[in-house]
Write a structure and sequence with these properties.
With 642 residues, the protein is an alpha/beta fold. Helices cover 59% and strands 9% of the residues. It is built from 21 helices and twelve strands. Strands 6-9-10-3-11-12 form a six-stranded mixed β-sheet, sandwiched between helices. α2 runs antiparallel to α10 (271-313), α6 (138-153) runs antiparallel to α10 (271-313) and α15 (503-512) crosses α17 (539-552). The chain is elongated.
């Protein structure tokens, strides 16, 4: 897997790789030539007393050394640049793949593991790539060249290499064999450390409120100790390997001197050749030692490459079809077929494209419908001109769930079963139900964050599985159950909905979301900083900023997943009173636990155990639906409910 990953991400840099190999080849050949020249100086210069020969050969050695140093510097520079660039590309590829993951793949890997894979695992592969360019390319050239040059100096003494090199290879092989499983454990222990840290940092208030600091400390120490023990096992192996290698090297040097002295005494070998042979032996053993150091890291990099390969080889469940259907074409055909009439709208509801008529707008403090709210001319894009994320006229798409069923793999029962409902343009549909009824799962089906396991979800009459997910989501604005804000400024946070939005549009969205007052009070206003996750804002402020972010998008479909839960009743009522002004002509789905937040919706859908058990207006459900009555009367008195 490591070779496969390197081949894939080094392919665009073939020229740089070839240049590194060429530079390392020149550097190694230069290093191999120096001991022979040194032997010549001893045998032909020092022994004979030829000073001129010594000076001339010494100058040649200095020139070769300069070439060697230059090539070494260039090889390290180009190799480091190539390794870092390949690491950047690998990290980007992992990030891009994770960005395409559906909720199922995210749950399979887990956030802590994905973070470790994107950082530590990439770093391991990157480091091995760098060492390959700086050490591994040179080591085999040095080893083979050293053997050839040693044979050139003295064939008889070279028999020692038949013992030394295989012995080193055995030591190295045993070390690699033992370290592979340990490095695999080490990466898993790092995943565990990340998981525990992530939970403790994210849940620090819960930990402190329940006085669980000692327990969490023990939990972290347990994970840290597991990593320590695994790393200690690796360290023990390394502590054995390097002394063993040094012992073999020193014993080899002693053997060369012992047997070489005898050959010199017999006149079979000159002194310079013995010195050169010793240098070549050291070069051979050093190349083996460098390979040992390299292969110490290869098992860990191999494990990291396998983990990265798992991510890169995982195909997301949510993919674009081979020939996606364009919603723009569908919308245009629908308008052409109806002549711009209100056929797509609900019976008795506002005409599609007409927005909400003046005098029929919003009654202050009374939810989603009512009397003398805002005139069409008060809002940009009013009178049916709802603008999408690209600034084009909205197409007023309807959403239909037709027998939608969803179940997680391996689950005993589906979360949603045979859910059928329709979200009409210009109307508000609310979903209410007990905890675990499947409300959030229903919301996730519409922007295709998950796919139905049976039935269908259609937008504009087209199955969402036939539409490119990117285009599909351009028409949807989602306020998730947990309001999450990215670090930056208030303006950059809101422009996640639409990067081209003007400041005036941001202030308009903030006003509708009941967030303008506290944003104006911030130092810097729209330029006020937002910390990661919006932790410098209260829960209610984060929720209102998330609502404003969705409103900035000017979408065809708005999904509010329990988006008013952190608001007090007065703020909730004010927001609901003006919300239709910003969403007119769009289909709106509101998921809520609080009855007061949805009682004025055009249609209320009651979910129970993943099934639709009732649908209608508040009064209709109060008259005929026991489940809805139970929910309402648990929150309101009979007089308030009426």
């Amino acid at each position: 897997m490591l070779i496969r990953v390197l081949r894939r991400f080094l392919r665009p840099y073939r020229r740089d790789v070839a240049l590194v190999v060429a530079l390392q080849l020149v550097q190694t050949l230069a290093a191999l030539s120096l001991p022979t020249l040194n032997a010549d100086i001893i045998d032909d210069g020092v022994v004979r007393g030829d000073t001129g020969y010594i000076m001339r050969t010494g100058a040649v050695m200095l020139g070769i050394t300069a070439v060697q140093v230059t090539c070494a510097i260039l090889a390290v520079y180009v190799g480091a640049r190539t390794a870092m660039t390949a690491g950047r590309d690998l990290r980007s590829a992992v990030f891009d793949r994770v960005q395409r993951f559906s909720l199922a793949e995210m749950g399979r890997f887990g956030a802590p593991s994905l973070i470790t894979r994107s950082t530590n695992d990439v770093q391991q592969v990157q480091m091995v790539t760098l060492l390959t360019f700086t050490i591994m390319v040179m080591a085999p050239i040095m080893m083979v060249g050293g053997v050839v040059m040693a044979l050139h100096q003295d064939v008889g003494l070279s028999a020692l290499l038949l013992v030394v090199v295989p012995l080193l290879a055995v030591v190295m092989g045993l070390a690699i064999w033992r370290m592979g499983p340990l490095f695999r454990k080490m990466q898993k222990r790092l995943d565990r450390i990340n998981l525990v840290l992530r939970e403790q940092i994210a849940g620090v208030r819960v930990v402190r409120s329940f006085n669980r600091q000692p327990t969490e400390r023990e939990r972290f120490e347990g994970a840290s100790t597991e990593l320590f023990r695994t790393a200690l096992g690796v360290g023990r192996l390394m502590a054995l390997v390097f002394p063993a290698v040094m012992l073999i090297m020193n014993a080899s040097s002693a053997a060369v001197i012992w047997f070489g002295a005898g050959r010199i005494d017999d006149g079979a070998m000159p002194v310079g050749s013995l010195v050169a042979f010793l240098n070549y032996l050291m070069q051979i053993l050093m190349s083996v030692l460098m390979a040992v150091m390299m292969f110490m890291m290869v098992p860990r990099a191999q494990v990291s490459a396998e983990r990265l390969g798992e991510v890169l080889a995982t195909d997301p469940e949510i993919v674009a079809p081979a020939e996606p259907v364009r919603l723009a074409t569908v919308g245009a055909a629908a308008r052409a077929g109806t002549g711009g009439a209100a056929a797509a709208g609900p019976p008795g509801g506002p005409a599609v494209g007409d927005g909400v008529r003046a005098g029929n707008g919003v009654r202050a403090g009374n939810g989603f419908r009512g009397g003398d709210g805002f005139r069409g001319g008060d809002v940009p894009g009013a009178a049916g001109e709802l603008r999408g994320a690209d600034g084009a006229l909205g197409r007023h798409l309807a959403v239909e769930l037709d027998g939608a069923t969803f179940g997680y793999a391996g689950a005993q029962a589906p979360v949603l079963r045979d859910v059928t409902l329709r979200l009409e343009p210009g109307r508000t549909t609310a979903v209410i139900g007990s905890t675990g009824a499947g409300k959030t799962t229903l919301v996730n089906l519409i922007p295709r964050l998950i796919d139905v396991t049976a039935g269908a979800v259609r937008m504009g009459g087209v199955d969402v599985r036939e539409v490119d997910p990117r285009e599909l989501r351009e028409h949807v604005a989602l306020v998730p159950q947990k309001a999450y804000l990215f670090s930056g400024t208030v303006a950059s946070t809101l422009r996640h909905g639409r990067p081209a939005a003007t400041d005036a549009e941001l202030w308009e969205a903030l006003e509708v979301a009941q967030a303008r007052d506290f944003v104006e009070a911030l130092p810097g206003g729209l330029d006020a900083p937002v910390e990661q996750g919006g932790t410098n804002f209260s829960g209610g402020q984060r929720q209102r900023l998330a609502i404003a972010r969705a409103l900035v998008r000017r979408a065809d479909i708005y999904l509010f997943d329990d988006a008013f839960s952190a608001l007090d009743y007065a703020t909730d009522a004010r927001l609901r009173a003006v919300l239709p002004r910003a969403t007119r002509g769009a289909a709106v789905l509101v998921v809520a636990q609080r009855v007061a937040s949805i009682r004025d919706a055009d249609t209320i859908v009651v979910l129970d155990a993943g099934q639709v058990v009732g649908s209608g207006t508040h009064q209709e459900l109060m008259d005929a639906n026991a489940t809805y009555q139970e929910i309402v009367l648990s929150q309101l008195s009979a007089e308030e409910a009426a």
